[in-house]
Amino acid sequence: MDHAFEVRVAGKGWIKGRELVQDDRLIARCSVCGNDADLVVAMTPEVFACRSCLRARLDAASVATYRFTESGPHTGLPWGKIAG
Ligand SMILES: [Zn+2]
Prior knowledge:
The strands form two sheets. This protein has a five-stranded antiparallel beta sheet with strand order 3-2-1-6-7. Strands 4-5 form a two-stranded antiparallel ribbon. The chain is built from one helix and seven strands, in the order βββββββα. It has one helix at 51-69; strands spanning 7-9, 13-16, 19-22, 28-29, 36-37, 39-42, 48-50.
């Protein structure tokens, strides 16, 4: 698998691994929110995400991790901690 992610920087160009192409007309459009951003990163060859969309998903991942690791009676999980 290729671990180099294409990054498109608005008004500058794109870069992927060692490849760097300058393009001062490049628009960095986010496939997720549809906005033009300062830069977008490839999620797949066709899908690009901006910083705020990436950050929102990282936040969701952090919250999910926290919710599944926290103890307490309000998690609502049937396989939650067994009270001792
Ligand atoms: Zn976005």
